[in-house]
Amino acid sequence: MKDEKAKPRGRRAKDADRRMGRRTLLIGGAAAAVGTAVLARDELRRLWWRMPGMEKPRVDGAVDFRGATWVAASAANWRRADRPDDYGIDRVIIHVTQGSFASAVRVFQDPGHGAAAHYIVRKDGHITQMIRELDVAFHAGNREFNERSVGIEHAGFVDRPEDFTDAMYAASARLTARICERYGIPVDREHIIGHVEIPGTDHTDPGPHWDWDRYLRLVREAAEASTSRGVAEAATSTA
């Protein structure tokens, strides 16, 4: 009789274990779901902006860098996007046009060219923007790097160091500093790179005469100056 009574109790205990196991599984599953939702939230936001018809408002002729002049590249040389919501930006890529400023503008406006950068910097330091930073420019020759970078062209030739003027270096450094500030990009050679460093490319720019040490120093100085101005302006506004 004792053994017969023990069996139901054993079954009840096993049923309780099953219920507890299911409860634990449900709780664990819910926690995992919450964790997954948190981890996936950014990706879902990116997917949202890839959906057809989902675009943020735009202003014709608007530029991302104050003082730049807007000249639109052909729509065949870039892809509409909504960075950094759909693609994060973590690189600045330095190019040299291998030609004049005017020729670079001309080919970037040519739908048959198949390539264009976001910016062109002239020898006198003038900056022209041809593609918005939120859009993907076809400049790196590598889709992944196109999606995650801003491309800056510099008018001139890689074998002519005289083309890289003081005004060009200074203006380009201010531009790069602003881009790095906007997207939280570290100012170093891992994140500010040359076209030659892109996997799969056959380009050599910016070439051996581009002074990377000087350029990074100027970018850092421009970033520090921008931070100082921001602090001063904040202090003035609260005074």
TrEMBL record:
Q: InterPro entries in the record, alphabetically?
A: Amidase/PGRP_sf (IPR036505), Amidase_domain (IPR002502), NAMLAA_amidase_2 (IPR051206)
Q: Where is the N-acetylmuramoyl-L-alanine amidase domain?
A: 78-207
Write the Enzyme Commission number(s) for this entry.
Answer: 3.5.1.28
Where does the source fall among the domains of life?
Bacteria
Q: Which UniProt keywords apply?
A: Cell wall biogenesis/degradation, Hydrolase
Q: Which Pfam families has this protein been placed in?
A: Amidase_2
* Annotated catalysed reactions: Hydrolyzes the link between N-acetylmuramoyl residues and L-amino acid residues in certain cell-wall glycopeptides
Q: Which Gene3D superfamilies match?
A: Peptidoglycan recognition protein-like
Specify the protein name.
N-acetylmuramoyl-L-alanine amidase
The top of its lineage is: Bacteria, Bacillati, Actinomycetota, Actinomycetes, Kitasatosporales
